[in-house]
Amino acid sequence: MMHTPLIAPSILSADFARLGEEVESVLAAGADVVHFDVMDNHYVPNLTFGPTICHALRNYGIEADIDVHLMVSPVDNMIDAFADAGASMISFHPEASQHVDRSISLIKQRGLKAGLVLNPATSLSVLDYVLEKLDYVLLMSVNPGFGGQSFIPNTVEKTQHLKHIIDEMGLDTRIEVDGGINKDTIKSVYDAGADMFVAGSAIFNKPDYKQAIADLKNQLK
Ligand code: DX5
Ligand code: ZN
Fold first, then answer.
1. How distant, in Å, are the alpha carbons of 121, 132, 218 from that of 165?
2. What percentage of the chain carries pLDDT values higher than 70?
3. Which of 90, 92, 142 is the best mutation target for the ligand 1 pocket, counting ligand atoms within 8 Å of the beta carbon and taking the most?
4. How confident is the model at residue 93 (pLDDT cuts 50, 70, 90)?
């Protein structure tokens, strides 16, 4: 099944002092989803923001889907906190959860879309007994923790392989790719079967968000 490709700006590269305005302007510029990177200085060596900031964006009037990428351990208490804070979809890393199937169920029980995130060195085999339960799989194309890193090329082959598995099983799971996505790398993963694209520095580090998003979308034609 074909999905409409979605561009999900990672607010990790936004100006945090003006976060509400930044999210508003990136959505007005054509972004589809807000990608929200939660880091805990434990699962990953960096620290960002938590559920109160997500809630603040909802209070500010942001209505777009908020795609919460949890890079935290433990996972489960943050699922409830982000569901309360207005998240639309939540993904987590299997290495960070003691009970992966339970964490997926918690997300689904809260009525949200559930995703599992695979690091560059994590095998697709972690999906063996849970893929049917997932709305999306997030393939990391960098090691998690920081924006502005270079795209790891073997993500293309991994995306192709995952797309093949999804199609063989007759599922309509989305494939999201995160890390080093820019106008030079996005087409390779799109052609491989990805349909949701996180981009932080390729959007927020540009002066014109509308142009930056158009540059990405133009590669998907
Ligand atoms: C990295 C984050 C990414 C990151 C992407 O741990 O998950 O979402 O912000 O940033 P760029 O697009 O700059 O690689
Ligand atoms: Zn992310």
1. 18, 11, 28
2. 100
3. 142
4. very high
